[in-house]
Amino acid sequence: MTGEARTPDGETGPLDGLTVVDASRVLVGPFCTMQLGDLGADVIKVERPDVGDQTRGWRPPSYGDTEESAYYLSINRNKRSVTLDFSTDAGREVFRDLVSEADILVENFRVGTMEEWGLGYDDLRAENPALVYCSLSGYGEWGPHRDRPAYDIMMQAEGGLMSITGEEDGPPVRVGVAIADIGAGMYATQAILAALLSRELGDGTGQKVDVSLLDGQVAWTSYMASNYFATGTPPGRMGSKHPTITPYQAFETRDDYVVVACASEHIWPRFCAAFDLMDLVDDERFATNADRVENRDALDSILDAELATYTTAEVVSRCRDHDVPVSPVNDMEDVFDHPQVEARRMHRTVEHPTAGPVEMAGSPMHFSGTPTSIRRHPPLLGEHTEEVLGEYGYRPEDIEHLRDVGAI
């Protein structure tokens, strides 16, 4: 396989030696392939000449004084960029060459597009039976809605998430990041790794992976779906509150908000002690969690009034002194100044050839023997076209010809 994907100090990730051809754009596919790159795979990002991934143009904000989109930079590290025009015969032929030696292909074109180009799974596995071919789409490869366009906000709405997100008497609210894309990207990574394991334990044959944004959102409804199945009543919006635990929510303080999580019966009396509310422990309305949930409105009225008399820092201090789970509601500045975030190397910086030092969130996957790393900056458009094609046997005159015919 091409590329060893080694870290600058010689360390390798657990997927070292594997090659990924990334024909995806925007978020769901690039998020998936970034994870594979973080794990050590050599990710070859295939982009359209001149324009590249659409997110290169999603600015402002851009990074520093450059035109490097902050959005693009956030999800494209540990990749090499090659430009190919799939509308040309030569571009498609080069793509087939790349995939013929790859372990994994990830694409998120509209369903049927790759087949129209002669680049579908059945077309490519004939030459590379070991290929794990992952297709990502809004609605999946089959079903009555397979051909509909899909965007994150639609999937959050259609998959039920927005019906349970937001304040009780307020409008439906979108989760603040594109959680449908990110969730499907995570499922895709899991499925790809499972398919690789199956290949290794089996006869060496790969398979096609089909992951949709809608399926991912439906799967994420988890216990809220179970609550609906158990009661026959669709759950509604509750703000930060939990349907089966209380107090487990955000409270307004004198200067901001704070989150408290009394997730067990042992925590409840400690919480009451923290705020000199021990009379609540003996109140039969609040004796057990089930009682507290049943009498939630009465309890909320008492706790809202009490915690509003303290600052957030005072609530956090009192709770931690009594071993009660608590957190301020951090903004991005707070998050990336957080000592635990720093200790876990979740705040990273990589040097970029035009944007300079680029800060980003790190990988949450940590290994004792094969650490993840940021080996490559998010690539410039086509930065590695000559390098990669050279590894596949293309001579300088071949590459020049591909430029002349508009294939790269």
TrEMBL record:
InterPro entries: CoA-transferase_III_domain (IPR050483), CoA-Trfase_fam_III (IPR003673), CoA-Trfase_III_dom3_sf (IPR044855), CoA-Trfase_III_dom_1_sf (IPR023606). One of its GO terms (molecular function) is CoA-transferase activity. The keyword Transferase applies. Keywords: Transferase. Transmembrane segments: none annotated. The keyword Transferase applies. PANTHER family: SUCCINATE--HYDROXYMETHYLGLUTARATE COA-TRANSFERASE. This is Crotonobetainyl-CoA:carnitine CoA-transferase CaiB. It comes from Halogeometricum limi. The lineage of its organism: Archaea, Methanobacteriati, Methanobacteriota, Stenosarchaea group, Halobacteria.
